[in-house]
Protein backbone atom coordinates (compact mmCIF):
# COMPACT_ATOMS: atom_id res chain seq x y z
CA UNK A 1 0.00 0.00 0.00
CA UNK A 2 1.39 3.38 -0.99
CA UNK A 3 1.10 6.32 1.42
CA UNK A 4 0.51 9.75 -0.01
CA UNK A 5 1.51 12.74 2.06
CA UNK A 6 -0.16 16.07 1.52
CA UNK A 7 1.54 19.16 2.90
CA UNK A 8 -0.70 21.94 4.04
CA UNK A 9 0.27 25.48 3.11
CA UNK A 10 1.71 27.55 5.97
CA UNK A 11 -1.54 29.50 6.33
CA UNK A 12 -3.56 26.31 6.85
CA UNK A 13 -1.18 25.04 9.53
CA UNK A 14 -1.41 28.37 11.30
CA UNK A 15 -5.20 28.01 11.53
CA UNK A 16 -5.16 24.52 13.03
CA UNK A 17 -6.43 24.25 16.60
CA UNK A 18 -4.98 21.72 19.06
CA UNK A 19 -7.25 19.04 20.52
CA UNK A 20 -9.08 20.36 23.59
CA UNK A 21 -9.10 23.97 22.36
CA UNK A 22 -11.21 26.15 20.08
CA UNK A 23 -10.72 29.41 18.23
CA UNK A 24 -12.68 32.63 18.71
CA UNK A 25 -12.42 36.04 17.09
CA UNK A 26 -12.43 39.05 19.39
CA UNK A 27 -12.45 42.78 18.85
CA UNK A 28 -14.73 45.65 18.09
CA UNK A 29 -13.22 46.86 14.80
CA UNK A 30 -10.25 44.63 14.01
CA UNK A 31 -10.81 40.99 14.97
CA UNK A 32 -7.99 38.96 16.49
CA UNK A 33 -8.02 35.17 16.69
CA UNK A 34 -7.55 33.54 20.10
CA UNK A 35 -7.23 29.81 20.80
CA UNK A 36 -8.63 28.92 24.21
CA UNK A 37 -9.33 25.73 26.20
CA UNK A 38 -12.70 24.00 25.82
CA UNK A 39 -12.93 24.01 29.64
CA UNK A 40 -13.79 27.73 29.45
CA UNK A 41 -17.20 26.73 28.06
CA UNK A 42 -18.15 25.57 31.58
CA UNK A 43 -17.34 28.92 33.20
CA UNK A 44 -20.32 31.25 33.89
CA UNK A 45 -18.35 34.37 32.93
CA UNK A 46 -17.44 32.86 29.56
CA UNK A 47 -21.01 31.66 29.05
CA UNK A 48 -22.06 35.28 29.49
CA UNK A 49 -19.79 36.24 26.58
CA UNK A 50 -21.38 33.49 24.50
CA UNK A 51 -24.82 34.90 25.28
CA UNK A 52 -23.63 38.33 24.15
CA UNK A 53 -22.34 36.79 20.92
CA UNK A 54 -25.68 35.07 20.33
CA UNK A 55 -27.59 38.32 20.93
CA UNK A 56 -25.36 40.31 18.57
CA UNK A 57 -24.70 37.79 15.80
CA UNK A 58 -27.23 34.99 16.24
CA UNK A 59 -25.65 31.91 14.76
CA UNK A 60 -24.12 33.69 11.76
CA UNK A 61 -20.67 34.98 12.62
CA UNK A 62 -18.89 37.42 10.27
CA UNK A 63 -15.47 35.77 10.57
CA UNK A 64 -16.79 32.28 9.82
CA UNK A 65 -15.98 31.24 13.39
CA UNK A 66 -17.26 32.21 16.80
CA UNK A 67 -17.00 35.98 17.23
CA UNK A 68 -17.04 37.49 20.73
CA UNK A 69 -18.37 41.09 20.86
CA UNK A 70 -16.01 42.73 23.36
CA UNK A 71 -12.69 44.53 23.34
CA UNK A 72 -9.52 42.47 23.10
CA UNK A 73 -8.35 43.94 26.43
CA UNK A 74 -11.54 42.80 28.17
CA UNK A 75 -11.23 39.33 26.65
CA UNK A 76 -7.58 38.99 27.65
CA UNK A 77 -8.41 40.10 31.20
CA UNK A 78 -11.26 37.58 31.47
CA UNK A 79 -9.27 34.68 30.04
CA UNK A 80 -6.34 35.51 32.36
CA UNK A 81 -8.72 35.21 35.31
CA UNK A 82 -10.12 31.95 33.98
CA UNK A 83 -6.62 30.52 33.48
CA UNK A 84 -5.76 31.44 37.09
CA UNK A 85 -8.94 29.75 38.37
CA UNK A 86 -8.26 26.52 36.50
CA UNK A 87 -4.64 26.21 37.65
From TrEMBL:
An example Gene Ontology biological process: response to auxin
Top-level taxon of origin: Eukaryota
One Pfam family hit: Auxin_inducible
Family: Belongs to the ARG7 family.
PANTHER family from the UniProt entry: SAUR-LIKE AUXIN-RESPONSIVE PROTEIN FAMILY-RELATED
Protein name (Swiss-Prot/TrEMBL): Auxin-induced protein
Native organism: Arachis hypogaea
